[in-house]
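Supplementary Methods, section 5.1.

A reviewer requested that the exact input to the structure prediction be made available. We therefore reproduce it here, unchanged from the version used in the analyses.
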Amino acid sequence: MNFYIVSLLDAMAERNIDLFCNLNFVKSAVFFSDLQELSIRLKTVADYYFIFFKRLEILPDEVTKEEYIGHYDNLYIKGHEPTVTHILQKVNQTQPFYNDILPIHLRYTDTTNMHLVVGIARPDDRRNGYLHAIDLCLPKNLIRNVSSNVLYVKDIFDIYCSDQKQTVKDFIESKGYNYSHFQRDCKVCFGDAFYSFRLKKNMLDAVGDIIFTDLSLKEVAFKNNFLDYANMYKAFVRHEVSLTSIPRLANL
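The structure derived from this sequence is encoded cell-by-cell as follows.
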C-alpha cells in the first residue's frame, strides 16, 4: 500500500459519504428522527466496502475498522476517543444547521496509524447530537511513499481510454515510454499491473453506481467500461464477489 492508493480511498470516501447524505431515504429518516435506520444503512455500506477492498487486495489484512455510534455531549470532548474528538472539533467548526445530517470526512495520523474517517453527525444543539463514524485504521508502517519518477503512470491511467484504437502498449510507446518499464512502474504506483488495476478501478466505480444510483446493472456495466453485463458479472465473480450482495440505497 502507498500514498497514491490511500489518496484514492480517501477521495472515494469523501464522495460516497456526500452521496449517502443526499439519498432520499436519509432525508426521510432525518425528518422522522429515525437515526437507527440511518445507522443500519451506513453500517451496511461500510461493511460491504471493507470486505470488498479486502477481496480486491486493495487493503492489507492488517488494516482494521472501528465504529463509533451514539449520542455525544461536547462538554465532555476531552474524555472521548481521539477519533471522536477530531470529529466533534470539525462539527463545531462547520456551524451546522441543528437537526440536520452533516457528512463527516477527515484524515489524521497518530503514532501508529493513519485514520480515514467518514460518517454522519446530527447536531441537536450546540452541545448535544448523534454520531455514527467509521474509522479505517491503516498501519503507518505499511504505507510507502511513491517516487515522483513513477507518478507519470497515474497520468497515463487517467487519459488512456479502453475504446481507442491503440493498445496500451502502442499508446505508451507513442508517448515515448518503454512498455516493460511502464509495467514495472505500474506495480510500484498501483501495486498491480495496468490492466488489473484498471479493472479494479472500474469495479470500484461500478459498486458506487450500484449503491448510490438507480441505474440498472446493464447501465452500470456500460457506464464503467465493461463490454456488457456478462463481462462485469464475470469480473466480480473472479474476485468472489456477488453483484446481488451489493446494497442498493437509491430506491429506498
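The beta strands are 64-73, 102-109, 113-123, 128-139. These observations are discussed further in the main text.
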